[in-house]
């Protein structure tokens, strides 16, 4: 697990605005209810491994979006403070999602920078 698998707030903002990112919010639903990054999908960290092992049809049925591809360059995980996001990113990388990244600032940093 190395720095190349972490994304900064600036790069994250560009990705979110481009709408090309696959953003997976690994917090609990109760946390997500208090605010989330636009177009993110909530998959709690405990479910990430199971979710990424699903076939695409099952994944889409359960989460309402297409399953990320193994070679997806814009697959981003995040949590509130960075720790669970790092766990999820590591799980994804171990499953073959080599370009998965963690938005280490998490929703805490995002909300502080977005809401002025």
TrEMBL record:
<dbReference type="GO" id="GO:0070221">
    <property type="term" value="P:sulfide oxidation, using sulfide:quinone oxidoreductase"/>
</dbReference>
<dbReference type="GO" id="GO:0005829">
    <property type="term" value="C:cytosol"/>
</dbReference>
<feature type="active site" description="Cysteine persulfide intermediate">
    <location>
        <position position="79"/>
    </location>
</feature>
<protein>
    <submittedName>
        <fullName>Thiosulfate sulfurtransferase like domain containing 1</fullName>
    </submittedName>
</protein>
<feature type="domain" description="Rhodanese">
    <location>
        <begin position="17"/>
        <end position="115"/>
    </location>
</feature>
<dbReference type="GO" id="GO:0050337">
    <property type="term" value="F:thiosulfate-thiol sulfurtransferase activity"/>
</dbReference>
<dbReference type="InterPro" id="IPR001763">
    <property type="entry name" value="Rhodanese-like_dom"/>
</dbReference>
<dbReference type="GO" id="GO:0036464">
    <property type="term" value="C:cytoplasmic ribonucleoprotein granule"/>
</dbReference>
<dbReference type="InterPro" id="IPR042457">
    <property type="entry name" value="TSTD1_mml"/>
</dbReference>
<dbReference type="Pfam" id="PF00581">
    <property type="entry name" value="Rhodanese"/>
</dbReference>
<dbReference type="InterPro" id="IPR036873">
    <property type="entry name" value="Rhodanese-like_dom_sf"/>
</dbReference>
